[in-house]
Structure to design on (859 residues):
């Protein structure tokens, strides 16, 4: 025991003297590596009565054979060590029910593990396992098995013998297929498969009747279609059920999106694809989006024709903010570059496609007007954008190179991942029926009838199809909107045309985006929009392109048409809470979406402009400004409830960020040292870096301006409620490896501790003051008040008057003191204010007042 740190020795002695059944030798929250165990003290193996042994977060490299001398062990925690193997002696722990080996360096498991027949929980996450032994089949009592964060490429068929398993974690591995055997785990309720290489799911997975949670994100799944997978386990069950009942068919249909700067030749290319003999003419700039149908024969699909929906996007700036609604996944993109003008921002367009289309394939078409060639750094672009497939020159005026362009477009269209994906025959029949319908939209009841006529029997199946077609961009059906869910828009172009008619209207532009319902009546005066004004307006709101001004008589604002000038505003620069978001690439329209989402907090529409807004709530103001040239959004909050309003702002921005698949950004937290605290230009820390410091148990970080050490937790706590922070981290994990787990977030500063408990079960705020549950909800204080009041009433008659008066006064002060304690417990008083107020209350008692004064006089 000579090399064992003193605090461990004391724990072992205590366990020995008191024959304790639990021994905790974990090293949580000790940053000094010298205090970590490199080997298990031999005295531990003398405690043969031990049932629970925690050795987590140390530096153990081996587990000695002597572990077999603890036959009563039921729980053994060896997580966060450096184990590379397990001894055969592990087999001689027959009572073991829980074994945690996560975050070690295990490459294999011994066959001896089969002897742990009582094991119900086995955690092997974050190791280096490449295979599982067949012996795993002997752990028939297992209910939870965590294998996430390893290097597994396959699962053994023997896994089917784990008949009691309810939770199976396989995320962050290298699985390409799932064995059919997994479908025999009839008790399984949770299956986590995110971040693997799965392309298909076995149809039998639909037979796991107890399964309620299935995580499949970040897999290249083609069957079922990704749009079905995203809807969850019930949608997957419905898909496989319909495949089995109706048989299989295929949709030979895809979407081709032509993008680029205005005047580059996008419309000309679209016309040339449709008809190579199309003669060039002066084309008006495309307003919004044009959709052209193009069919070509399929040699390998029973003589069918392949249908391509060509979407030609207007290149004007006003349309860029709406790209996120129409640049869909599993499509082919063509970026047209005018080599004569040399004005194509390749990085902007390639980044937009990468963000919004889940890395769909892209071709660059160089329109060499007047045969002017232009070289682009294709090698560099390919190194940054893996979805860039070809760079093809052409002259659309002479058709030079056009044939090769068409052949490459056909090739990449036919090889899109969803082409050939099996669909129920009923789905294909309904899709064909909707396509042959010349109307722009139909009512929901009519859509349901069309489904019924084509073999559907269940309403949920019909709605699943409309959701699938909506995700593909084939039609629009907003099922969650109480107004729009009654209509299925068969021709999305009809809806987008109506939207852009508002944005392009000269009167609306002159009024800086302001319009009324009477304006809409004039804009949408054609017969095709009759009786659909409410739905079209709702469509604009759903696309976050406009909002209703609070308190107005149906007046609306399209924020992308607002003035570019920031209104003058006397911003209070004292005691501001500041936060910044910086972006590796910043898509256009983030601030527009934010303004629409937060419009109810804009005070009388006074302080909002094209790139920023000031929000007001509960005597607090937040200024949110987008600096597009700097790829940054800056937030300043001033007033009474700064953190509350900051939380609302960041929550909405984070929702917008999540709508982009691959958006890379940093959230920057301001320093709160004495130099930075009241500065408009404080030092900033990356939020991810601060979270990593918490995970690595680093309590402090240095300010680059003042070189002062500041507490990591206090930095986060300034801008975000600590309980919400923990909850967000756990939600973000979603069963995968958490970046920060609730157990890890427990760095202490004074009375400020982040815990993993819910608000109703919050842990003590300091190690010295351990408040029971009743203290946390105020019921204890009410109980004490009632008890004391009853005692005074009961004994009051037997006390002399001056004693009774003194008792009543002391009770009143005691109740006030309890109230102060409650305020501090609820974080509504700072530590200094709490101490000062407590001192004032206590000084009302003469005896205590004299003691305080005497103590201060001796200092």
């Amino acid at each position: 025991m000579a090399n064992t740190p003193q605090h461990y020795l004391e724990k072992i002695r205590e366990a020995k003297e008191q024959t304790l059944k639990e021994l905790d030798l974990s090293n949580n929250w000790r940053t000094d590596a010298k205090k970590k165990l490199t080997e298990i003290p031999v005295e531990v193996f003398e405690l043969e009565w031990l049932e629970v042994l925690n050795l987590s977060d140390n530096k153990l490299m081996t587990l000695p054979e002597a572990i077999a001398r603890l036959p009563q062990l039921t729980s053994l925690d060896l997580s966060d060590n450096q184990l590379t193997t397990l001894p055969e002696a592990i087999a001689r722990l027959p009572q073991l029910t829980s074994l945690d080996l996560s975050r070690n360096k295990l490459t294999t498991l011994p066959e001896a593990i089969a002897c742990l027949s009582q094991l119900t929980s086995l955690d092997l996450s974050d190791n280096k396992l490449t295979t599982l032994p067949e012996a795993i089949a002997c752990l028939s009592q297992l209910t939870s098995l965590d294998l996430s964060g390893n290097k597994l490429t396959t699962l053994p068929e023997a896994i089917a013998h784990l008949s009691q398993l309810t939770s199976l974690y396989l995320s962050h591995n290298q699985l390409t297929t799932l064995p059919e055997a997994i479908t025999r785990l009839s008790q399984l309720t949770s299956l986590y498969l995110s971040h693997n290489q799965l392309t298909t799911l076995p149809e039998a997975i639909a037979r796991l009747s107890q399964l309620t949670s299935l995580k499949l994100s970040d897999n290249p799944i083609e069957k079922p279609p990704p749009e079905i997978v995203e809807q969850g386990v019930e949608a997957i069950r419905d898909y496989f059920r319909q495949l089995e009942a109706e048989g299989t068919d295929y949709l030979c249909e895809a979407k081709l999106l032509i993008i680029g700067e205005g005047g580059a030749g996008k419309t000309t290319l679209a016309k040339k694809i449709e008809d190579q003999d199309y003669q060039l003419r002066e084309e008006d700039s495309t307003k919004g989006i044009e959709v052209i149908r193009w069919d070509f024969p399929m040699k390998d699909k029973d003589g069918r024709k392949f249908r391509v929906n060509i979407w030609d996007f207007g290149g004007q700036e006003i349309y860029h903010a709406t790209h996120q609604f129409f640049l869909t996944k599993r499509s082919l993109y063509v970026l047209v570059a005018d080599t004569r003008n040399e004005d194509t921002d390749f990085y902007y367009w390639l980044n937009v496609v990468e963000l919004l289309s889940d890395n769909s394939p892209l071709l660059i078409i160089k329109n060499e007007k007047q045969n002017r060639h232009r070289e682009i750094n294709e090698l560099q672009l390919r190194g940054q954008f893996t979805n860039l497939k070809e760079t093809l020159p052409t002259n659309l005026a002479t058709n030079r190179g056009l044939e090769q362009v068409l052949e490459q477009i056909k090739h990449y269209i036919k090889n899109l991942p969803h082409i050939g994906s099996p669909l129920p025959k009923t789905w294909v029949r309904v899709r064909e029926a909707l396509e042959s319908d010349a109307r722009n939209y139909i009512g929901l009841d009519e859509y349901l009838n069309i489904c019924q006529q084509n073999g559907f029997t269940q309403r949920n199946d019909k709605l699943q199809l409309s959701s699938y077609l909506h995700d593909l961009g084939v039609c629009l059906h907003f099922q969650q909107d109480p107004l729009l869910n009654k209509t299925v828009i068969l021709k999305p172009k009809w809806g987008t045309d109506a939207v852009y008619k508002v944005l392009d209207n000269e009167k609306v532009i002159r009024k800086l985006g302001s319009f009324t319902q009477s304006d809409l009546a004039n804009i949408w005066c054609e017969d095709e929009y009759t009786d659909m004004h409410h739905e079209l307006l709702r469509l604009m709101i759903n696309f976050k392109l406009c909002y209703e001004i609070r308190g107005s008589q149906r007046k609306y604002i399209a924020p992308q048409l607002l003035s570019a000038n920031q209104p003058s505003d006397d911003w209070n620069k004292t005691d501001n809470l500041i936060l910044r978001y910086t972006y590796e690439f910043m898509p256009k329209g983030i601030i527009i979406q934010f303004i629409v989402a937060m419009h109810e907090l804009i005070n009388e529409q006074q302080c909002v402009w094209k790139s920023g807004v000031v929000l007001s709530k509960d005597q607090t103001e937040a200024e949110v400004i987008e600096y597009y040239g700097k790829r940054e959004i800056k937030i300043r909050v001033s007033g009474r409830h700064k953190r509350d309003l900051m939380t609302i702002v960041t929550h909405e921005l984070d929702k917008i960020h999540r709508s982009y698949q691959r958006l890379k950004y940093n959230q920057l937290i301001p320093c709160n040292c004495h130099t930075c605290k009241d500065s408009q230009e404080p030092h900033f820390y990356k939020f991810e870096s601060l979270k990593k410091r918490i995970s690595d148990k680093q309590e402090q970080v240095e300010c680059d301006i003042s070189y002062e050490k500041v507490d990591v937790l206090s930095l986060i706590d300034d801008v975000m409620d600590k309980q919400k922070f923990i909850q967000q981290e756990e939600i973000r994990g979603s069963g995968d490896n958490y970046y920060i787990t609730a157990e890890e977030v427990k760095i202490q500063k004074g009375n400020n501790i982040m815990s993993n408990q819910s608000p109703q079960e919050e842990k003590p705020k300091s190690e010295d003051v351990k408040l029971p549950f009743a203290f946390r909800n105020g019921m204890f204080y009410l109980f004490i008040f009632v008890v004391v009041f009853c005692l005074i009433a009961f004994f009051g008659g037997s006390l002399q008057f001056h004693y009774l008066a003194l008792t009543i006064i002391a009770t009143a002060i005691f109740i006030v003191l309890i109230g102060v304690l409650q305020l501090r417990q609820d974080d509504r008083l700072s530590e200094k204010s709490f101490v000062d107020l407590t001192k004032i209350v206590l000084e009302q008692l003469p005896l205590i007042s004299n003691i305080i004064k005497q103590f201060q006089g001796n200092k």
User: Anything to note?
Assistant: The radius of gyration is 33 Å. Residues 721 and 831 are 17 Å apart (CA to CA). The longest helix spans residues 801-825.
